[in-house]
Design goal:
Blueprint lengths: L9 E4 L2 E4 L3 E5 L2 E9 L3 E9 L5 E6 L2 E4 L1 H6 L2 E4 L2 E6 L2 E8 L4 E9 L5 E4 L6 E3 L5 E2 L10 E3 L3 E5 L5 E5 L1
Parallel strand pairs: 1-11, 2-15, 3-16
Antiparallel strand pairs: 1-2, 3-4, 4-5, 5-6, 6-7, 8-9, 9-10, 10-11, 11-12, 12-13, 13-14, 16-17
């Protein structure tokens, strides 16, 4: 399955819909889930993969994994019938599944360049877990079934636990 958007990009993350937003999830200055447009192909997702120690392992663009030298050693795996699944050491990092039309649904459990852990599932609150393994509260808002459209950034997380939603 090719993970390509034909029309306006639409992706569902943590029960919320993001339409025509290039950076769905950002941590500090690092986009963790973004939608890019490839010449002649259309829109697709792009996700950087970091190890828990902050080592940059790969960039996943569409349904292709581009590993670094360290990423080749880590053996990042992908594929699962009906879904695009990327895993490391048998732990699922993220899943993309095709929805209706050009829509995709994403769940992610990703590390950041400084080793924090970001978890976005159907739980309506994105979670940020610090280096000690403690969950940090990200904002105090429960977001369920919202639609965000025509913004620069959907969710912007900070290592201090703060969160900006719908950044223009």
């Amino acid at each position: 399955m090719e993970l390509i958007f034909q029309g306006s990009p639409k992706i569902v993350v943590a029960t919320n819909t993001f339409i025509n937003i290039p950076v769905i999830l950002k941590y500090e200055d690092t986009p963790l889930l973004e939608v890019i447009k490839e010449q002649g192909i259309g829109f697709m997702t792009q996700i950087p993969i970091y190890h828990s120690d902050g080592t940059y392992l790969a960039k996943v663009t569409g349904n292709r994994v581009y590993p670094t030298e360290e990423g080749k050693k880590a053996k990042i795996e992908r594929d699962n019938p009906g879904k695009f699944v990327c895993s490391l050491d048998k732990r699922v990092l993220f899943e993309l599944s095709h929805g209706v039309g050009d829509a995709f649904k994403a769940t992610a459990e990703l590390y950041t360049p400084d080793g924090c852990f970001v978890k976005c599932t159907d739980n309506p609150k994105p979670e940020l877990i610090n280096l000690a393994g403690n969950t940090m509260r990200v904002g105090g808002v429960t977001m369920i079934g919202n639609v965000f459209q025509n913004l620069s950034i959907g969710i912007w997380l900070r290592k201090d636990g703060s969160c900006a939603i719908g950044v223009g």
